[in-house]
Protein: STRN protein
Organism: Nyctibius grandis
Amino acid sequence: DPSVLRGAFVGHTDAVWGLVYSAAHQRLLSCSADGTIRLWKATEIAPALNIFNDNQEMGIPSSVDLVSSDPSLMVASFNSGHTSIFNMETRQRILTLESISSSCQINRVISHPTLPISITAHEDRHIKFYDNNTGKLIHSMVAHLDAVTSLAVDPNGLYLMSGSHDCSIRLWNLESKTCIQEFTAHRKKFDESIHDVAFHPSKCYIASAGADALAKVFV
């Protein structure tokens, strides 16, 4: 709709895998198959403020998120199996999180809303938890029967939701790291199933999107 389109951020030369908006700074973060992560000023259509990983030293970025405990930082995961924390203003790589099997692709990284913890979803069915201050691995678990594609934490920081190509959504208690609910949400198509999951910011709704071309909302 032309009445709501403000313009296009031009700069990426390949598919854009992830977008995150920072309301605090009115900034937009994007990660792309062209190997770069870009920081944009959301209030005006202009070239990127900063470009990260432009020589692809970490690999191709697969996911990016804002670090909730420090709004000047972002966390990014890569197809090489690495996850790093960057300062968005200085472009400095602050920390690379400990990786045991570093060759396994990470499909999603999210930041815990209240704790200095990053959570990653892996192609090899694992979910891993990291301490943002030390970079150390806190916990690792086989979470699904197929690749874990998506993660979300509820606004209160008590529950983790994960989606997978095994067609299931699983709800986890973050304190005990145990699965408290599992249900099938989407059919498989071309060996893929669930692509994204989300919690509603204030109501008791969750949502998912899948390769079967459906988006679903659950109460």
In short: Residues 18 and 150 are 12 Å apart (CA to CA).
